[in-house]
Amino acid sequence: MSATLGALLRRLQPDWDIQVFERLEGPALESSDAWNNAGTGHSALCELNYSPRTADGDVDISKAVSVNEKFQVSRQFWSYAVENTILGDPTEWIRPVPHMSFVAGRDGQDYLRARYDKLAGHPLFPGMGHTTDFAELERLVPLMARGRSAEQPFALSHFENGTDVNFGALTRQLIKYLTRTGTEVHYQNQVKDLERNSDGTWRLTVANRHTGDERTIDAKFVFVGAGGGALHLLQKSGIPEIKGIGGFPVGGQWLRCTNPELVEQHQAKVYSQASVGAPPMSVPHLDTRVIDGKKGLLFGPFAGWTPKFLKMGSFLDLPSSIRLGNLLPMANIGLTEMGLVKYLVTELAKNHGARVDTLRDFVPSAQDGEWEKVIAGQRVQVIKPNG
Ligand SMILES: Cc1cc2nc3c(=O)[nH]c(=O)nc-3n(C[C@H](O)[C@H](O)[C@H](O)COP(=O)(O)OP(=O)(O)OC[C@H]3O[C@@H](n4cnc5c(N)ncnc54)[C@H](O)[C@@H]3O)c2cc1C
To answer: Is the pLDDT at 253 greater than 70, yes or no?
Structure first.
């Protein structure tokens, strides 16, 4: 977020003095690191939570259209940035990978067909394919077909023009552009405090994590692009918009496979549906990843739990974010969001074998030893004061 905004500002206001403070030793080591997210440039080609079924059995595609439009805007910016040498070699961070949606059962077939009928004629969703034919499944995603009964009803929608994005590599290129155009980027510098001066400007207190030294910096504008670290900083800023807002951390874990023989049998990002009550962040998917030129597969996400708001955060992150104003909304979640609570408890109880069992819905022939657990990024679910 900060690298993108910095690049846009450099372009629009080249004379502005911009400084970036990052608490870690390099850029994009938290959520934007390649293995800490699934690298799907969310374009709603395959994510079914953006096109839910309505009460009358129809499919609502309005969210899918708005998400897709936003991704096209990102692509326009990236194209512009490549043409104008803001960004370097795009193959380091964006690759074509087909996007697919897979559902099992007759009910799933009806839903996916209805979704296909709604999206297929839309200009933002060109070249959409759809099949319930097992031979097509074998051709498109052989790893998912192997060991599966040809009698079992399923449906698969697919787009050839999906992408795999390495947001970490993209961030590093944007930061390079920022530094070569005069932006100061300070690593191992943690913003500890943020308060408003009497003239409306901001005062930041920044600690050098290497030496322990603290200093203050005054700025006209501050962009808090701190990911999981944002809630604390916004609370310190005292802005009225943050009153009553809380955060609840949900960790992410993947199963990863780097065995070239298996990796070669799957060339797609395949999304299915979240189980009942589970949040959209839990939608299971099997993804081809291309990271530093090497292909791998990931499956998940599975939920983990720690009170940290950042992967490399502190165990005090959750308790120190609790205020009088957000205590009630946070307590309410435990009472009203039983689906989320049940999802978390079930997820936390899973061992490696149970995770590979879940994977077998996608890859029936999966063996425990072929997949390893990796810890993905940490997410902070925003809890709003009013519902
Ligand atoms: C399991 C998982 C799967 C995901 N899959 C996808 C996906 O497929 N597609 C997609 O588009 N998105 C996905 N996401 C979401 C995506 O990864 C994040 O939305 C995105 O990376 C957030 O970028 P950011 O710049 O806001 O935060 P980050 O990349 O986390 O950057 C925040 C930075 O701020 C720094 N920081 C924090 N506090 C301070 C402080 N006080 N002082 C100085 N520096 C500080 C951190 O060290 C970090 O470097 C996924 C996330 C997870 C966890």
So the answer is: yes
